Amino acid sequence: MTGKTTERGLCELYQEDPERADYKVFGRIANGDRRGFLKGAGLAAMGAVVGGAIPFQQNMQSGLIPAALAETPKDFKLQGKDGLTVLNDRPINAETPPHLLDDDITPNERLFVRNNGTVPEMAEKMDASGWTLTVDGKVNTPLTLTLDDLKTKFKPVKLQMQLECGGNGRAAFNPPAKGNQWTLGAVGNPEWTGVRYADILKAAGLKDSAVHTGHYGMDGHLSGDPDKIPISRGVPIDKAMDPHSLIAFEMNGGPIPTLNGFPVRTVCPGWPGSTSQKWLKRIWVRDQVHDGPKMTGTSYRVPDYNVAAGEKVPKEAFQIIQSMPVKSLITTHESGHVVKGKSLTVGGHAWAGDNHVTAFHVSIDFGATWVTANLKDPPNPYAWQRWTAKLDFPTKGYYEIWARATDNSGAMQPFAINWNPKGYLNNSMHRIAVRVEA
Ligand SMILES: Nc1nc2c(c(=O)[nH]1)N[C@H]1C(S)=C(S)[C@@H](COP(=O)(O)O)O[C@H]1N2
Ligand SMILES: [Mo]
Hints:
It is built from 7 helices and 25 strands. The chain is of the alpha+beta class. It has 2 domains: about 10-65, no CATH class; about 70-438, Sulfite Oxidase, Chain A, domain 2 (Alpha-Beta Complex), CATH 3.90.420.10. The strands form 7 sheets. Strands 6, 9, 11, 12 and 13 form a 5-stranded antiparallel beta sheet that branches. Strands 18-25-24-20-21 form a 5-stranded mixed beta sheet, with no helix packed on it. Strands 5-4-14-10 form a 4-stranded mixed beta sheet.
């Protein structure tokens, strides 16, 4: 970009300087520790990892690191979140390796954690006594509701709905984007029980001037300053009134786990996870777009035109992200799987923000040809959808399985990343590497 740069193919760079190559492709993780996937090893090791022959090698793009090598460091452990990769411990951020997301309904211990501040004491103690929800602002009757009020005065609703961080996939941005270096696993699909957001707003009675909501949680700011708020986002009234937007008090049939928002959170499905405020205590109905922390500036926003990787974008061009894009994961197998025999049935989940997934395709030849997968309807709107495909491998050797969802608007997961300055909305297709030992 600036100065004199020597362009080197990534495979070459991997051989010479694996750490630098990692940095180029995957960026740096938030705590600064980015180990070379092939530290001190080089391409010789790559042969060993992928097991020699690569039958469709002629289709491999330069600049594409074999999926076999794209793994993340797994260092710390988090209580109640077995197997998650911890990116950060203050604030706590942890993602789920895709092969641990195979359940149709994501169990408590497998749902990722994205915190901007400190976990409230009430959630740590799992004791909701004294908790209330205030609904105020542009309403006719401000409300103060207890947990009991929520559970008894409104009709309960149970829905499976996916939740994905707007920055999921950021680690693949090049040049790197600041923020949590999520790879693939800042997503999950629990079953939520709660009341309709709309029912709460109707009970308060919206004034004509109401256009947006503002959510407030009980978490503390990392600075320890009690007057500062780590995050306060909201949604346009239309999204809040959608019958799938919930004020949830249960996840998977029990209390919402400490790290996922006990006792109550909003669930605004299909939109960036940040609109699903955890540890909720107040909904402020506004006559303008909410302007709490992480709602303004460039937070959770992308340019309103296509930009080149690394391009500088003026502030005015950033628009608030609404629906998340079509996306999917391969969850039945992880990279490195050894296929005995010549066929393999693979599967996973697909989802599409406010849309739904209508077609699913899988390739084993680097995208040259595609097999149509079997795709299930969602049990309810906003739940992710199960896909499966039987793959037949022509010979033994190294293969990559590429998975691609298409939604009802015709949008399809891209092969490459649509770069944007803050590293949001990476919905490029998921790939895993397998070795066929026929
Ligand atoms: N109060 C509060 N709510 C929050 C956050 C937070 O830091 N504080 N993080 C948001 C973000 S950015 C995401 S992606 C989701 C993550 O939800 P989870 O941690 O339950 O997976 O919570 C959202 N709600
Ligand atoms: Mo997020």
